[in-house]
Amino acid sequence: MDSCPEATFFHRAGWKEVIERAFGHPTHYLYAESEGMIQGVLPLGHVRSRLFGNALISTPFCVYGGIAANCHAARERLEQGACSLADQLGVEYLEMRNVAPRNSNWPKKDLYVTFRRDIDRDPEQNLRNVPRKQRAMIRKGIAAGLVSQIVDDVDRFYAVYSESLRNLGTPVLSTKYFRLLKETFGKSCEVLTVASGNRTIAGVMSFYFREQVLPYYGGSTPEARALKGNDFMYWELMRRSAERGIRVFDYGRSKKGTGSYDFKKNWGFVPRPLNYEYYLANCRDVPNINPLNPKYRVFVNLWRHIPVSVTRSIGPMIAKNLS
After folding, report:
1. Tally of CB atoms within 10 A around 40
2. pLDDT < 70 regions, the chain
3. Among residues 35, 121, 200, 224, which one has the fewest Cβ atoms lying within 10 Å of its Cβ?
4. What was the pLDDT predicted at 149?
5. What is the pLDDT of residue 284?
């Protein structure tokens, strides 16, 4: 299925091992076959939690998912199989993280958008394509003497990333998960860090698929804000990616009305809606498990005041169910 136009990095088989080994969630990989040839695949993860419910998701911890198929018949069979599995497992709902809309009669969540844009081989052209105000932020980071580096050290990235998530009020995933991503996907999973002097102030873990780069997990320290470390980091990733022949920069998913949404728009990227669709097996309403939900506001504000060392210890036990 590597040649299927609908396939994404998140349809790769390696996610099965990562999700099962890192979190203990069972996975079910469905495929449709015709005359000995696979015509479609559907990766599914079963996430069951007392706090956040019982769901079958394609794909947990991934922004894209759903069915990747070469024909309508394969797509229909896989959808039927997924609904049957949801009923069999007794989950509350099946969540399909589609890029394009699939079922007009299924409930849909209008919350997430994605940001994707072609990039040029010429770094100077890419810089000119960034709006003037944001381009000034990048230049400030360059003038501050910031240095980017591709590293194999997941721990250095994790130290920055986990602090950043604590400051946002979000539980962090485990270091085991990030090490498994590097181990499983090899050169398709890369870590870039940004340093000011001898201090790492920002880092991003990116995925590579076909001619695309997806900066997926990123974070920074408070010091990076004054030095424009985030702007510099994503520019360096774009610059390096263009030089190695990457053609698409996928800035990833953001919730409408959030800081990350505004940040990506300021780079000149146009938001495109993601079509998350739901088969409600044993519930009446589409789930609303996200930090913008008022019922989680107290928890988010409290989490911001917990010491980072504590959030690194207990955060993964919570985050593994926030898929």
Report:
1. 26
2. 1-2, 290-292
3. 35
4. 96
5. 87
Please give the span between the terminal C-alpha atoms of the chain, in angstroms, as a whole number. Answer: 25
Angstrom distance (rounded) from CA 229 to CA 203: 9
Q: How many CB atoms lie within 10 A of CB 230?
A: 21
The helix (run of H) or strand (run of E) holding residue 186 is: none
- Pair 261, 270: CB distance under 8 Å: no
Q: Report DSSP letters for 242-307, one per residue.
A: HHTT--EEEEEEEETTSHHHHHHHHTTPPEEE-EEEEEESS-SS----STTSGGGHHHHHHHTTS-
Question: Residue 306: what pLDDT?
Answer: 94
Distance from C-alpha of 284 to C-alpha of 174, rounded to nearest angstrom: 33
Stated as kind and residue range, the H or E segment containing 23 is helix 14-23
Is pTM beyond 0.85? Reply is yes
Report the DSSP beta bridge partners of residue 32.
Answer: 40
Please tell me whether the peptide bond between 27 and the residue prior to it is cis, using omega within 30 degrees of 0.
no
